[in-house]
Amino acid sequence: MKILVLNCGSSSVKYKLFNMTSKEVLAEGGVEKLGLPGSFLKFVGKDGKKVILEKDLPEHTAAVEFILSVLKDKEHGCISSYDEIEAVGHRLVHGGEKFSKSVLITDEVIKQVEECIELAPLHNPPNIKGVDAIKALLPKVPQVGVFDTAFHQTMEPFAYMYALPYELYEKYGIRRYGFHGTSHRYVSQRACEVLGLDINKTKIITAHIGNGASIAAIKDGKVMDTSMGLTPTEGLIMGTRCGDVDPGALAFLVEKLGLDGEGLSNLINKKSGVLGVTQISSDMREVEAGIERGDKKAILAMEMYDYRIKKYIGAYAAAMGGVDLLIFTGGVGENQWTTRETVCEGLGFLGLEIDKELNTNMRGKEMVISKKGSKATIMVVPTDEELMIAKDVQALV
User: Fold this and answer.
1) What is the rounded distance in angstroms from the CA atom of residue 203 to the CA atom of residue 209?
2) What is the pLDDT of residue 121?
3) Cβ of 73: how many Cβ atoms within 10 Å?
4) Strand order in the sheet with 50-54
5) Percent of the chain scored above 70 by pLDDT?
6) What is the pLDDT of residues 59-77, one digit of tens each?
7) Strands (E), 267-329
8) Where is the active site (predicted)?
9) How many of the other CB atoms lie within 10 Å of CB of 155?
10) DSSP 179
């Protein structure tokens, strides 16, 4: 069974084509600068080298149509007919309280996703455009929606509610939803599979750490808590997002800087985080270079970044009554050994003891990095959200 997975953003369309019989990735790539001058499709060619094809792509249907044409292209393609694509899976960011699992996409589902646009105005509209594009180009092919928020819908009200007037929840749905759910679900399942653990009897903390970052507490296969909230801004310090901050400080800044809602959102989502503290970059490679030069702001930002992760791990271990398994994933979690070591330092009282030699030599691979005598396991698991989406599609179709 061949399944196409799409992730449609406002100015990009990422894709992977899977042969689910062999779990082989037949093709992958993405359109960038969608709707802007100089738009192009970048993908991995048959020889393993990157290929870039420039084309004017004003909107999502044109982008998806171009991707499909390349998949069938004699020089670059891997299918002879569109009939080989038996289903399409979409990453849908916000399902609110409406969706606790992946679903076959119908007109009613789209209507409900549209009702969540207010909660994710930057993400849900382009997600829907991807669905519409497939509907127009491959009208007979079933489509499945996989929601970033769905995995976290097992949280109890005491974990997801904010201490705001209750009518704001009833009227506007103001509560914690959490994101990166597909990634947290994949790495927790994958780690238990590798280690031979029963996920339904295991206390797991998953740390998806990258430019966007979140942590989840998963007890007996269900999410107890997660760090992102109503939006992806809450929780950990991220590339350009501030994470947790005193709401009173934001009210103070609104008054002092004369900010409206859009201005405040721009400040906390695009100008803060690692970029805001370092005043260098949101790219950890550039920050690490700054640390090597002795840049005090870069050093401070990294200390803040690592400390916030450690603090959440401690909190979630307390919430679950212990931890059996800590998983690092995401761009930083998979590749930055210094953050993993700093975060795990001093967590021996939780049974988490990192093997410094294994950790230092590990980059981007699936591997246990805890000491042999560690009571709890520390593991790195590269995330594969697209494969998780494809599995959901296969199960539903």
Assistant:
1) 19
2) 82
3) 12
4) 50-54, 40-44, 24-32, 12-19, 2-8, 85-92, 143-147, 103-104
5) 100
6) 999 999 999 999 999 889 8
7) 325-329
8) 148
9) 21
10) S
Q: Which amino acid is at 97?
A: E
Closest by CA to 177, choosing from 119, 218, 104, is: 119
Q: What tokens were used for 261?
A: 């809602």
Element (H, E) at 178: none
284 in a labelled binding site = yes
Tokens for 323?
A: 């931890």
Query: Cβ contacts of residue 133 below 8 Å, gap of 6+?
Result: 8, 60, 61, 63, 64, 65
Instruction: Please state, in angstroms and as integers, the Cα–Cα distance from residue 42 to each residue in 15, 56, 160, 328, following that order.
Output: 10, 14, 39, 28
Active site residues: 148
Instruction: Give one DSSP letter per residue of 25-46, joined into a string.
Output: EEEEEEEESTTSTT-EEEEE-T
Residue holding tokens 């679903």?
A: 103
Q: Is 210 annotated as a binding residue?
A: yes
Q: Is the model's pLDDT at 122 over the cut of 80? A: no
Beta bridge partners of 162: none
Q: What is the pLDDT of residues 197-233, one digit of tens each?
A: 999 999 999 999 999 999 999 999 999 999 999 999 9
Strands (E) located in 55-106:
85-92, 103-104
Q: Is 335 annotated as a binding residue?
A: yes
Does the annotation place 200 within a ligand binding site?
Answer: no
Contact 380, 365 (CB under 8 A): yes
Strand order, beta sheet including 222-226: 222-226, 213-219, 203-209, 325-329, 377-380, 367-368
285 in a labelled binding site: yes
113, 172, 213 from 105: Cα distances, Å: 10, 25, 28
Q: Give the predicted TM-score (pTM) of the model.
A: 0.93
Is 333 annotated to bind a ligand? Reply is yes
Distance CA 193, CA 275 (A): 37
Query: Coil, strand, or helix at residue 292?
Result: helix
* pLDDT tens per residue, range 146-196: 999 999 999 999 999 999 999 999 999 999 999 999 999 999 999 999 999
235 assigned ligand-binding residue: no
Q: Flag whether 211 is marked binding.
A: yes
Burial class (CB in 10 A: 0-12, 13-18, 19+), 204: buried
CB 29 within 8 A of CB 43: yes
Q: Would you say residue 23 has pLDDT above 90?
A: no
